[in-house]
């Protein structure tokens, strides 16, 4: 890809190259890259080397049809070539969409892709998608339909689908005949993360979290959080008939390939590398939860709802949580967040109704609920809204002024409601961020006294005490945590690592 960009940047200088130099340029192209050959054609459309590059690009595109020796004559040789090349290079199509002839060409080339056989590929409305089973849904079409409000813009949808199709065509161009699933995975990784350079957004722009979960924005920006890049990956997998499992540890999502004997994890925020299962566990996780395609759509709106909740836009937050529940109607986390949106919007009756429904659900993959049952404190009038909000709504920014303001709210709130565990827990996190470990220990110890069966609390106490060189206390809370995990029949590598760390400082107490 770097070579390709160099070609485009230096186009004026390259026009003076003689035939031998142009042949060297051609031989330096990636033989399986459609975009590099199209780019060389763009620079030299009237020369033999340019026409040769175009012919090779057409052959690569034709691989999706299963007829390597047959050329398809795409409408490339006209003044619109720049727009088509920009599209192929993955540049933003937010403002300018492809002409109909280019859309038609890509759709013709993509007619045999795997998602075309899905019932959901023909869906025209979100309502149609919601009625489908998970195995019938075309994820790309479903998310683009759900993302639109009001009148459906068909050309807008077709352009983003064409970009997904072209990514799939480029993967096919790199594949041998009858590829294995693992070969497909390797080439998806190559195309997404190296040829088109999809990346996790940098810290500076992470506050615009919602952008990087939405399919259209991820395709425009070539950047996405775990959910955004995973969705692009799944859209390609459907097109390439690649069976993948979707896994959602708390606060994360990734995909994996399971051949029945070995699991290969695909971490889309780290260029598709395999990360061992142990890395996805925390002491509160019972098992790695698997979701289906339909529930994955719900995750998009769960993320959007939480973004608006953090902005204190409770009307929009409720709208997105309710939309998420259309795809995952019994999801405990989504139900919980909807309840909080009602509570913070001063709709106590609706909040209580949702929270009473939440009691019937469970976070099956976790030992303790993420909010440490703060919603139950709300139902029992054992916390005020200001303290509740400071305890359960993630901060938009981790800067000192905001953390200190939240600390003041929680210090006052926990003084008034000393048994409010969620308040103490958030307060301990803030103390850690503000480099006040002794206060963080005190806050966590309050929870330990109220409820000694929360493994994350015991684990964090162990780590903080060890940091403060209080090894006996660290051992004590390590054993509390180990006992809780043992009662749930959970064995974690990270606990073995912590034990070895403590043993390096002192003998394990009996």
Describe the protein in words.
Among the domains are: 1-89; 116-291, no CATH class; 452-510, no CATH class. It has 25 helices and 4 strands. α21 (421-433) runs antiparallel to α22 and α23 packs antiparallel against α24. Helix content is 57%, strand content 3%. The termini are far apart. It has helices spanning 2-9, 11-14, 19-27, 34-43, 48-62, 81-88, 100-109, 126-131, 139-147, 154-174, 181-195, 215-221, 226-239, 293-310, 314-327, 332-344, 348-358, 374-379, 385-392, 400-416, 421-433, 437-450, 455-467, 471-487, 493-503, and strands at 245-247, 254-258, 263-266, 290-291. The chain has a 4-stranded antiparallel sheet. The longest helix is centred in the N-terminal third of the chain and has 21 residues, at 154-174. It has 510 residues and is mainly α. The radius of gyration is 27 Å and the shape is globular. A hairpin with a 4-residue loop joins β2 and β3 (263-266).
């Amino acid at each position: 890809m770097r070579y390709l960009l160099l070609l485009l940047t230096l186009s004026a200088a390259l026009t003076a190259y003689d035939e031998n130099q142009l042949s060297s340029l051609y031989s330096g192209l990636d033989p399986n890259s459609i975009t590099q050959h199209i780019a060389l054609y763009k620079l030299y459309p009237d020369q033999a080397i340019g026409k040769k590059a175009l012919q090779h690009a057409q052959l690569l595109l034709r691989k999706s049809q299963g007829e390597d020796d047959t050329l398809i004559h795409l409408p490339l040789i006209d003044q619109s070539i720049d727009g088509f090349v920009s599209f192929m290079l993955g540049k933003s199509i937010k403002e300018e969409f492809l002409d109909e002839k280019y859309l038609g060409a890509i759709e013709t080339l993509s007619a045999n892709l795997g998602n075309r056989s899905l019932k959901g590929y023909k869906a025209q409305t979100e309502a149609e998608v919601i009625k489908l089973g998970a195995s019938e849904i075309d994820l790309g079409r479903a998310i683009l339909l759900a993302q639109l409000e009001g009148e459906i813009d068909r050309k807008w949808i077709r352009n983003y689908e064409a970009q997904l199709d072209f990514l799939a065509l480029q993967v096919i161009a790199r594949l041998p005949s009858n590829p294995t699933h693992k070969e497909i995975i390797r080439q998806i990784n190559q195309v997404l993360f190296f040829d088109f350079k999809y990346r996790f957004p940098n810290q500076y722009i992470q506050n615009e979290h919602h952008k990087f979960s939405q399919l259209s924005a991820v395709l425009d920006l070539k950047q996405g959080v775990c959910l955004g890049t995973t969705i692009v990956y799944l859209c390609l997998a459907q097109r390439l008939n690649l069976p993948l499992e979707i896994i959602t540890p708390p606060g994360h999502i990734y995909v994996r390939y399971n051949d029945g004997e070995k699991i290969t994890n695909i971490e889309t925020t780290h260029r598709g590398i395999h990360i061992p299962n142990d890395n996805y566990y925390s002491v509160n996780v019972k098992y790695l939860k698997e979701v289906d395609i339909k529930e994955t759509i719900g995750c998009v709106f769960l993320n959007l709802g939480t973004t608006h909740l953090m902005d204190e836009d409770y009307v929009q937050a409720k709208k997105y949580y309710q939309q998420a529940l259309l795809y995952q109607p019994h999801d405990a986390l989504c139900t919980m967040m909807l309840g909080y949106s009602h509570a913070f919007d001063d709709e106590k009756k609706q909040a209580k109704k949702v929270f009473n429904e939440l009691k019937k659900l469970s976070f099956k993959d976790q030992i303790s609920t993420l909010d440490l049952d703060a919603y139950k404190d709300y139902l029992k009038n054992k916390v005020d809204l200001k303290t509740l909000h400071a305890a359960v709504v993630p901060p938009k920014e981790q800067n000192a002024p905001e953390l200190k303001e939240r600390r003041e709210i929680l210090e006052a709130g926990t003084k008034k409601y000393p048994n409010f565990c969620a308040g103490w827990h958030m307060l301990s996190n803030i103390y850690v961020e503000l480099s006040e470990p002794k206060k963080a220990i005190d806050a966590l110890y309050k929870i330990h006294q109220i409820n000694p069966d929360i493994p994350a609390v015991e684990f964090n106490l162990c780590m903080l005490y060890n940091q403060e060189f209080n090894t006996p206390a660290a051992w004590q809370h390590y054993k509390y945590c180990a006992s809780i995990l043992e009662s749930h029949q959970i064995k974690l590598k990270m606990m073995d690592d912590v034990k070895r760390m403590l043993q390096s400082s002192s003998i394990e107490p009996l």
